[in-house]
Structures are given as structure tokens and as C-alpha cells.
Design goal:
Length: 202
């Protein structure tokens, strides 16, 4: 396949790159500063095979040539990797320990999460952000969240999260100021867990 035919088969990115990227970035910033709150995706785009709409928008807004992306086996389709390389310029790695952004479905094997970079005491920002694609996000009371950005408590429910995720997340919280931040991405909704958030599972 020639470069011209590959380019002609690419899905478009944002309709209005600067405006749409800023709109998604603001939502992600709000979601991270208010853990557990559910935000609607402010735009509509076409997602490549392997990624959903919110995940694609998140990466288009956040990833660039200086951020390395790791995709799980179910996400690492030719369409997804080509889309991200073209629109973001991001290097795609097969080594989760090198990821700035790691993307997976929540129903996959999540054992890779223990390999994600957590930063160092000197550079806690050199940690990964985990983007988990999920079927739905609701404010049912499956999880009770506490911590910075939350008044008293906040409820969040992500269907299908395995017990191993919660065990890892409890350990991750105790690494502060290091640790991995998590973004849950359904097709049209986003919610986040910062590394400072404490979780009590019902």
C-alpha cells in the first residue's frame, strides 16, 4: 500500500483542531481536578477501530510527538496506530513501562498496569496516565471517593472493573506524589481518578 493510499484511508481528526482540542483539554482538566465527576464529551468525532470516541478525543487533545502511547492487544489495531501516528505524531510502544499514555479495555487482562511508570520523587510528573475504555460510567454508589477536589464523598460506578484493579489502585494511591492517574472513557463520557483519590469499594 502506498503512502498516498494510506493517507486517503485515514479518518479525520478534529474538525477545528485548536478549538476542539482546547474544549476536550478543559473537560479533562476539570475531570482530573474533580475526581469521579462525570463529564460529557464536548465534541463528536469518528474513532478508528480499536478505540472509542472519548479515548480518541482524549489522545488527540493530550498526545503529541513527545508522548509515547502503549495500546493493549485489543486496541492496537492498524487503524488505531496509524490514526495516532498521523494526527498526534506519537511514538507507539509495545513496552508498557515506557508509556506516557496507556490504553486498554477494562475487560482485558490488566496485569500490565503494574509496569506503568509512576514517576520519581524528583519528577513525579514523569508517570503514565491510564485510559480505560468502559461500557458506561454512572454515579451509582459502587465506589465512594474521597480526597482533594471532592467535598465529603462522591459516588462512581464503572461496570466490570476487576478486583485486581482496585488492589492496584489502593497501592497506587499510597505512592503519592508519584503514581498513575486514571481516565475512564465510555463512548461519550469521561471521568477521572487522580493519584490523590481514595476509594472505598461497596
Amino acid at each position: 500500500m502506498t503512502l498516498q493510499s494510506q493517507t486517503s484511508n485515514l479518518l479525520p481528526g478534529f474538525d477545528h483542531a485548536a478549538f476542539d482540542s482546547n474544549a476536550v483539554f478543559r473537560v479533562l482538566l476539570d475531570a482530573m481536578s474533580r475526581p469521579g465527576r462525570i463529564y460529557n464529551l464536548p465534541i463528536n468525532i469518528t474513532a478508528p477501530d480499536g478505540l472509542n470516541i472519548s479515548t480518541t478525543a482524549t489522545l488527540l487533545a493530550m498526545a503529541d510527538m513527545d508522548t509515547t502511547v502503549w495500546l493493549s492487544p485489543a486496541c492496537a489495531t492498524n487503524a488505531a496506530t496509524t490514526h495516532l501516528k498521523f494526527h498526534c505524531g506519537s511514538p507507539i510502544t509495545t513496552d508498557a513501562s515506557q508509556a506516557d499514555f496507556a490504553v486498554a479495555r477494562c475487560d482485558e487482562d490488566l496485569s500490565f498496569i503494574t509496569q506503568l511508570p509512576v514517576g520519581t520523587a524528583e519528577y513525579p510528573d514523569q508517570s503514565a496516565t491510564l485510559i480505560l475504555m468502559v461500557d458506561d460510567i454512572s454515579d451509582n454508589s459502587e465506589m465512594h471517593l474521597r480526597g482533594p477536589g471532592i467535598k465529603d464523598t462522591h459516588s462512581l460506578d464503572i461496570k466490570g472493573l476487576p478486583t485486581a484493579f482496585h488492589a492496584w489502585r489502593a497501592e497506587n494511591h499510597h505512592l503519592f506524589p508519584c503514581g498513575v492517574d486514571v481516565i475512564f472513557a465510555s463512548s461519550t463520557k469521561i471521568a477521572a481518578l487522580s493519584r490523590t483519590t481514595r476509594i472505598e469499594v461497596k
